[in-house]
Amino acid sequence: MDTNFPYQETAQATPPLSDERQVARSAATRIVHLLLLLVVLNQLAGSQFMERPEPGDESLSLYLIHQYAGLAGFVVVAAFWIWTLVRRGETSVARLVPWFSLRRLRDVGADLAMQAKRVSRGHGPDDNDGALASSVHGLGLLAVTAMAATGSIWFFTHGTPAAHLAMSAHKVIANLVWAYLFAHAGLAVLHWLLGSDIFSRMFWPARRAAR
What we know:
Order of helices and strands: HHHHHHHH
CATH architecture: Up-down Bundle
Radius of gyration: 21 Å
Largest sheet: none
Strand content: under 5%
Number of domains: 1
CATH class: Mainly Alpha
Helix content: 55-70%
Shape: globular
Protein backbone atom coordinates (compact mmCIF):
# COMPACT_ATOMS: atom_id res chain seq x y z
CA MET A 1 0.00 0.00 0.00
CA ASP A 2 2.72 2.51 0.93
CA THR A 3 4.67 1.85 -2.24
CA ASN A 4 1.57 2.30 -4.36
CA PHE A 5 0.68 5.58 -2.73
CA PRO A 6 3.95 7.47 -2.11
CA TYR A 7 2.12 10.74 -1.41
CA GLN A 8 0.53 9.37 1.76
CA GLU A 9 3.52 10.30 3.94
CA THR A 10 3.46 13.89 2.69
CA ALA A 11 -0.27 14.19 3.27
CA GLN A 12 0.08 12.91 6.84
CA ALA A 13 2.68 15.58 7.60
CA THR A 14 0.00 18.26 7.22
CA PRO A 15 -2.75 17.96 9.84
CA PRO A 16 -6.30 17.78 8.51
CA LEU A 17 -7.98 21.13 8.18
CA SER A 18 -10.67 20.10 10.64
CA ASP A 19 -8.17 19.65 13.46
CA GLU A 20 -8.07 23.40 14.18
CA ARG A 21 -11.66 24.26 13.33
CA GLN A 22 -13.37 24.00 16.71
CA VAL A 23 -11.86 26.84 18.73
CA ALA A 24 -12.95 27.49 22.31
CA ARG A 25 -12.74 31.25 22.83
CA SER A 26 -11.67 32.60 26.18
CA ALA A 27 -13.49 35.33 28.07
CA ALA A 28 -10.67 37.75 27.25
CA THR A 29 -11.05 37.07 23.53
CA ARG A 30 -14.81 37.61 23.70
CA ILE A 31 -14.41 40.88 25.59
CA VAL A 32 -11.72 42.31 23.31
CA HIS A 33 -13.63 41.24 20.20
CA LEU A 34 -16.80 42.92 21.49
CA LEU A 35 -14.90 46.12 22.33
CA LEU A 36 -13.35 46.10 18.87
CA LEU A 37 -16.78 45.67 17.26
CA LEU A 38 -18.26 48.54 19.28
CA VAL A 39 -15.36 50.85 18.45
CA VAL A 40 -15.54 50.09 14.73
CA LEU A 41 -19.32 50.57 14.63
CA ASN A 42 -19.04 53.84 16.55
CA GLN A 43 -16.32 55.18 14.25
CA LEU A 44 -17.97 54.17 11.00
CA ALA A 45 -21.45 55.32 12.01
CA GLY A 46 -20.21 58.52 13.66
CA SER A 47 -18.24 59.51 10.57
CA GLN A 48 -21.51 59.76 8.65
CA PHE A 49 -22.89 62.52 10.90
CA MET A 50 -19.87 64.56 11.95
CA GLU A 51 -18.63 67.67 10.18
CA ARG A 52 -14.97 68.56 9.94
CA PRO A 53 -14.48 72.12 11.26
CA GLU A 54 -13.04 74.76 8.96
CA PRO A 55 -9.58 76.17 9.77
CA GLY A 56 -9.91 78.56 12.73
CA ASP A 57 -13.24 77.12 13.91
CA GLU A 58 -13.61 75.30 17.19
CA SER A 59 -13.81 71.53 16.91
CA LEU A 60 -17.36 70.23 16.93
CA SER A 61 -18.40 67.74 19.59
CA LEU A 62 -18.98 64.80 17.23
CA TYR A 63 -15.67 65.49 15.56
CA LEU A 64 -13.87 65.47 18.91
CA ILE A 65 -15.64 62.27 19.93
CA HIS A 66 -14.56 60.65 16.66
CA GLN A 67 -10.94 61.65 17.22
CA TYR A 68 -10.65 60.43 20.80
CA ALA A 69 -12.72 57.32 20.21
CA GLY A 70 -10.36 56.58 17.33
CA LEU A 71 -7.36 56.79 19.65
CA ALA A 72 -9.14 54.48 22.07
CA GLY A 73 -9.83 52.17 19.14
CA PHE A 74 -6.14 52.04 18.31
CA VAL A 75 -5.47 50.90 21.88
CA VAL A 76 -8.16 48.20 21.57
CA VAL A 77 -6.72 46.99 18.25
CA ALA A 78 -3.23 46.86 19.76
CA ALA A 79 -4.60 44.94 22.75
CA PHE A 80 -6.28 42.47 20.39
CA TRP A 81 -3.03 41.76 18.54
CA ILE A 82 -1.03 41.47 21.76
CA TRP A 83 -3.57 39.08 23.22
CA THR A 84 -3.55 37.04 19.99
CA LEU A 85 0.22 36.68 20.31
CA VAL A 86 0.21 35.47 23.91
CA ARG A 87 -2.96 33.40 24.15
CA ARG A 88 -2.90 29.62 23.80
CA GLY A 89 -5.41 27.17 22.35
CA GLU A 90 -7.11 29.75 20.11
CA THR A 91 -6.64 31.03 16.57
CA SER A 92 -2.99 31.96 16.13
CA VAL A 93 -1.47 34.91 14.31
CA ALA A 94 -0.11 32.45 11.74
CA ARG A 95 -3.66 31.42 10.85
CA LEU A 96 -4.90 35.01 10.76
CA VAL A 97 -2.00 36.06 8.52
CA PRO A 98 -1.13 32.97 6.45
CA TRP A 99 0.32 34.84 3.47
CA PHE A 100 3.98 34.12 4.29
CA SER A 101 3.66 30.33 4.56
CA LEU A 102 3.18 28.03 1.58
CA ARG A 103 1.65 25.39 3.83
CA ARG A 104 -0.84 27.86 5.24
CA LEU A 105 -1.69 29.11 1.75
CA ARG A 106 -2.31 25.54 0.61
CA ASP A 107 -4.66 25.10 3.59
CA VAL A 108 -6.54 28.26 2.61
CA GLY A 109 -6.85 27.02 -0.98
CA ALA A 110 -8.04 23.58 0.12
CA ASP A 111 -10.58 25.12 2.49
CA LEU A 112 -11.83 27.43 -0.27
CA ALA A 113 -12.33 24.44 -2.56
CA MET A 114 -14.21 22.59 0.18
CA GLN A 115 -16.48 25.59 0.84
CA ALA A 116 -17.20 25.93 -2.88
CA LYS A 117 -18.11 22.23 -3.01
CA ARG A 118 -20.49 22.65 -0.06
CA VAL A 119 -22.23 25.60 -1.72
CA SER A 120 -22.46 23.79 -5.07
CA ARG A 121 -24.29 20.97 -3.26
CA GLY A 122 -26.83 23.36 -1.80
CA HIS A 123 -25.32 23.64 1.69
CA GLY A 124 -24.31 26.81 3.49
CA PRO A 125 -20.62 27.56 4.02
CA ASP A 126 -18.97 25.91 7.02
CA ASP A 127 -19.07 28.32 9.98
CA ASN A 128 -16.14 26.82 11.91
CA ASP A 129 -12.67 28.31 12.17
CA GLY A 130 -11.11 26.84 9.07
CA ALA A 131 -8.09 28.21 7.27
CA LEU A 132 -10.21 30.34 4.92
CA ALA A 133 -12.35 31.89 7.66
CA SER A 134 -9.30 32.64 9.80
CA SER A 135 -7.50 34.33 6.91
CA VAL A 136 -10.58 36.46 6.14
CA HIS A 137 -10.80 37.46 9.80
CA GLY A 138 -7.14 38.38 9.61
CA LEU A 139 -7.77 40.62 6.59
CA GLY A 140 -10.52 42.39 8.51
CA LEU A 141 -8.23 42.89 11.49
CA LEU A 142 -5.48 44.26 9.25
CA ALA A 143 -7.93 46.70 7.66
CA VAL A 144 -9.19 47.89 11.05
CA THR A 145 -5.61 48.20 12.27
CA ALA A 146 -4.68 50.30 9.25
CA MET A 147 -7.76 52.50 9.74
CA ALA A 148 -6.92 53.11 13.40
CA ALA A 149 -3.22 53.65 12.65
CA THR A 150 -3.80 56.20 9.88
CA GLY A 151 -6.29 58.08 12.04
CA SER A 152 -3.81 58.18 14.91
CA ILE A 153 -1.01 59.36 12.60
CA TRP A 154 -3.25 62.18 11.39
CA PHE A 155 -4.06 63.16 14.98
CA PHE A 156 -0.44 63.37 16.09
CA THR A 157 0.96 64.93 12.91
CA HIS A 158 -1.90 67.32 12.17
CA GLY A 159 -0.91 70.06 9.72
CA THR A 160 1.97 68.17 8.12
CA PRO A 161 2.27 66.38 4.75
CA ALA A 162 2.27 63.07 6.63
CA ALA A 163 -1.12 63.96 8.12
CA HIS A 164 -2.53 64.68 4.66
CA LEU A 165 -1.36 61.31 3.34
CA ALA A 166 -2.62 59.54 6.44
CA MET A 167 -6.09 61.09 6.10
CA SER A 168 -6.31 60.16 2.41
CA ALA A 169 -5.45 56.56 3.26
CA HIS A 170 -7.81 56.65 6.25
CA LYS A 171 -10.81 57.49 4.07
CA VAL A 172 -10.04 54.75 1.54
CA ILE A 173 -9.48 52.12 4.24
CA ALA A 174 -12.71 53.14 6.03
CA ASN A 175 -14.66 52.25 2.86
CA LEU A 176 -12.96 48.85 2.78
CA VAL A 177 -13.88 48.28 6.44
CA TRP A 178 -17.50 49.20 5.66
CA ALA A 179 -17.56 46.55 2.91
CA TYR A 180 -15.92 43.98 5.18
CA LEU A 181 -18.33 44.73 8.02
CA PHE A 182 -21.42 44.25 5.84
CA ALA A 183 -20.09 41.03 4.32
CA HIS A 184 -18.90 39.65 7.66
CA ALA A 185 -22.14 40.47 9.47
CA GLY A 186 -24.24 39.19 6.58
CA LEU A 187 -22.51 35.82 6.57
CA ALA A 188 -22.80 35.57 10.36
CA VAL A 189 -26.57 36.23 10.18
CA LEU A 190 -26.89 33.66 7.38
CA HIS A 191 -25.11 31.03 9.50
CA TRP A 192 -27.36 31.89 12.46
CA LEU A 193 -30.51 31.56 10.35
CA LEU A 194 -29.27 28.16 9.20
CA GLY A 195 -29.10 27.04 12.84
CA SER A 196 -25.53 27.84 13.82
CA ASP A 197 -24.57 29.02 17.31
CA ILE A 198 -22.00 31.40 15.80
CA PHE A 199 -23.01 34.44 17.89
CA SER A 200 -22.91 32.60 21.20
CA ARG A 201 -19.50 31.12 20.31
CA MET A 202 -18.13 34.59 19.70
CA PHE A 203 -19.84 36.79 22.30
CA TRP A 204 -21.11 34.76 25.23
CA PRO A 205 -20.32 31.37 26.82
CA ALA A 206 -23.77 29.77 26.77
CA ARG A 207 -24.57 28.22 23.43
CA ARG A 208 -28.09 27.92 22.15
CA ALA A 209 -29.14 24.55 20.83
CA ALA A 210 -28.81 24.20 17.08
CA ARG A 211 -32.13 24.32 15.31
